[in-house]
Amino acid sequence: MPSSYNLPELVKKEIDALVKAGYYSSKSDVVKDALRTFLYSKKNLRIAAAVELYKDGAVSLGKAAEIANINTFEFKERLKELEIKRVIVAESAKKMDRKIARIQRTHG
């Protein structure tokens, strides 16, 4: 789903200048790098984005933690603080059932 954003003329000229100077191969690369740098420097925004993506079902818990740049335990704690319930998808539940059955056979 393509998105477009309006930028001030000076910013557009600066982006063009960076491409022309050879620092980037395209305007898109400049914007991608700028957003990565911005999100890297703002931990709270990375976490907020990760939480929203997780809530929408767009990413798994592990991927959301990776996006937030924290471990899964910390991400689970953050969800708990925000009173967001975790949902185990059917595939994960089946894997968990198989693991439990394997443990029961081994230790039963």
Description:
The protein has 108 residues and is mainly alpha-helical. It folds into 2 domains: 7-41, no CATH class; 43-108, no CATH class. Helices cover 70% and strands 0% of the residues. The protein is built from 6 helices and no strands.
Helicity, in percent? over 70%
Give the averaged pLDDT, no decimals. 89
Instruction: Indicate the multimeric state.
Output: single chain
Q: How many helices in DSSP terms?
A: 6
Structural class: mainly alpha
Low-confidence stretches: none
C-alpha geometry: elongated
Give the SSE order as H and E letters.
HHHHHH
Major β-sheet profile: none
Instruction: Work out the number of β strands.
Output: 0
What's the number of domains?
2
Strand content: under 5%
* Alpha-carbon distance between the two ends: 51 Å
Return Rg in Å: 21 Å
In short:
With 108 residues, the chain is mainly α.
Features of the shown structure:
mainly alpha; 2 domains; 6 helices
Sequence-ordered SSE layout with sheet pairings:
Blueprint: H1 9-20, H2 27-41, H3 43-55, H4 61-68, H5 72-81, H6 90-107
